[in-house]
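<backbone_tokenisation>
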Amino acid sequence: MFSKAVQDKVGHYVYRLIDPRNGETFYVGKGQGNRLFMHIRGEIEADEESDDYSLKQQRIREIRLAGLDVIHVLHRHNIPKDAIYEVEAALIDAYPGLANLQSGHYSPDRGPMNSEQIIAKYALPSVPDDTGHKLVLININDFENEDRGTVYEQVRYSWKISVKRAKEADYVLAVIRGVVVGAFVADEWLPSGDPRLNMPGTLSRDKRFGFNGRRADPEIWELYVGSHGKRIDSDEMRHVQNPIRYYNMEG
């Protein structure tokens, strides 16, 4: 534990939790005071909107059952409050396979890219932000070999999403690294695992949903996607951390 005097000096910090059995970093977090130690002891209450809590706690229990202690490293301390999210995001990006299921702040928009990806992204036209459409923007994984046929399957299943708001949307936009790569109409949203979703080999996941739908009409596709994708410049449209972003919707 940090004494009050140490807490005052340490300020805001970003830390890693490491499994002593294999040296693997399994969680990156931020905090101040004794939040680090509360995390290790399992005293942080679960966030029902997030899966990373249970994954992290399961790993900690396994380490304890092995008679070992979680290793921790403070990567940066006394960080200015407005910089802490950037430090945390950079570390999350640097350690794949973490229990953090949400990416770091703005990682989906300005996270790891090579120079060719940077050039391609910023050479693209921008997505219009004044169409009046209600949109759900979903951040998906990159597709391989420019196979855009996989975009629909990736974007439709399965998400922790407000179904009420999702049903209000005119279109669902698929986003990769801040670029819209697909535009779809969701005809119905169904619970994860529902056979009507026709997703063979997938399992039902608690509080998650997917949709059946279709590619948007050509004029809508051209508006939001174009030939090679369109870059998101609007702060209101950009993904911060959660893979789901709602636009032009209240609530």
About this structure: The beta strands are 13-19, 24-31, 71-77, 135-139, 171-176, 179-191, 209-215, 230-231, 244-247. The mean pLDDT is 87. Residues 110-247 form one domain.
